[in-house]
Design brief:
This is Flagella cluster protein. The chain is mainly beta. The chain has one domain (about 10-80). The chain has strands spanning about 20-25, 30-35, 50, 65-70, 75-80. A hairpin with a 4-residue loop joins strand 4 (about 65-70) and strand 5 (about 75-80). The protein is globular. The two termini are about 15 Å apart.
Length: about 80
């Protein structure tokens, strides 16, 4: 199984055939994992990926499953399983 590689940062265009854009605004986006990519934090497949350049983020509700966080120099990635 391929795993998200964040060693040199994260560029959604590197994975555009494997991820589906769900929502996007000026500083963040939510994507669905269409191909079973592995989480950069734990290696397990994830369901959703939230990517943010924003300094602060508020989530209205929490997912029922595990949450993993991964950080690049420029972005925070939140992965739900």
């Amino acid at each position: 199984m391929a795993r998200l590689d964040i060693a040199d940062g994260f560029d959604v265009h590197d994975y555009r055939s494997k991820l589906k854009l769900i929502t996007q605004d000026a500083g963040s986006m939510t994507l669905a994992n269409r191909e079973g990519l592995g989480c950069p934090a734990c290696g397990d497949p994830f369901e959703r990926l939230f990517v943010s350049d924003d300094e602060t983020v508020r989530f209205a509700s929490a997912p029922n499953g595990p949450i993993c966080l991964a950080r690049t120099d420029e972005r925070l990635l939140v992965l739900t399983h």
